[in-house]
Design goal:
The protein is an alpha/beta fold. Helices cover 31% and strands 18% of the residues. Strand 3, helix 2 and strand 4 form a beta-alpha-beta unit. Residues 195-225, 226-255 form the 4Fe-4S ferredoxin-type domain.
Length: 270
């Protein structure tokens, strides 16, 4: 069976989960390809029996650019699954995707959400958190073990669809708590979390990873001296640049940020 996994990851936690799910499928003899959302071509959906979609929760909902990408999906009987990482509440992360794809006749197989202390720049939201606490991994290592059981459930439900021509009884509970967050633009959310990005020139090694590897909105460019520059109007506050930088050279103006770094390798490898 051919399975495609597409995802967005700002801190690397969702990327880590995507890799664990990929391994779970491969152990069961399936062919799996994994893509970051900007690198996946919509026309390639036809190549896969099952498609997985992964995203972190950002601002209590699915990141807008992820939804914009999903809205390009064709109408077809496509089996799919959803996975997510968040800091405690899904709110509308799954439901927005589910409602949209249901209208396009996509068949939901299963969902998985891993919750932790916070997988984004929690220093900006909770200023009383200490540096030591904010450096802790957002999700416990044991949580990632759920990925293997998740893949088993997906394959069982897929078999049910193929053999019985019915959709498994999987639904997403719609949550409307704090949907007012949808009314906030991505630009406002960016200013509210990490603010205007600043590069510490003493730390920056001009590696270019922030501009070439992680930014999904194209808001980062490198100037003639290979120093990153930011178009704040395009920033969607995914926190990727802050968390990816191996030298912790990118911060928000007026904020002392302590990004997670443990899972950065999963972003760099993707």
């Amino acid at each position: 069976m051919k399975i495609g996994i597409i995802y967005h990851s700002g801190t690397g936690t969702t990327a880590r989960l995507a890799q664990e799910i990929k391994s779970g499928f491969e152990e069961k003899g399936n062919a799996v390809q994994i893509f970051r959302i900007p690198k996946f071509r919509i026309e390639d959906i036809e190549d896969f029996d099952i498609l997985g979609i992964g995203t972190p929760t950002m601002g209590f909902r699915t990141p807008s650019f992820v939804m914009d990408f999903i809205k390009l999906f064709p109408t077809k009987n496509q089996p799919y699954f959803l996975f997510n990482t968040c800091s405690g509440t899904l709110v509308n992360t799954f439901s927005r995707i589910y409602r949209h794809l249901k209208k396009k006749n996509w068949k939901l197989l299963d969902v998985l959400s891993l919750k932790g202390q916070g997988t984004t720049n929690i220093k900006a939201w909770r200023p009383k958190i200490t540096e030591e606490l904010s450096k802790m991994d957002g999700i416990a290592e044991s949580e990632f073990e759920k990925a293997k059981q998740f893949t088993s459930s997906i394959l069982e439900n897929y078999t049910q669809i193929i053999q019985e021509k019915t959709s498994p009884a999987k639904t997403v509970k719609l949550k409307y708590l704090m949907t007012v967050m949808f009314l906030l633009s991505d630009n406002l959310l960016a200013k509210g979390t990490i603010g205007k990005k600043v590069v510490n020139l003493e730390r920056c090694t001009k590696c270019g990873l922030c501009a070439t590897k992680i930014c999904p909105s194209g808001c980062i460019t490198l100037n003639s001296e290979s120093i990153p520059e930011f178009n704040e109007k395009l920033c969607i506050s995914c926190q990727g640049c802050v968390n990816l930088c191996p030298e912790l050279a990118i911060t928000g103006k007026g904020k002392k940020n302590y990004p997670y770094t443990t899972y950065n390798k999963y972003i760099i490898q993707s």
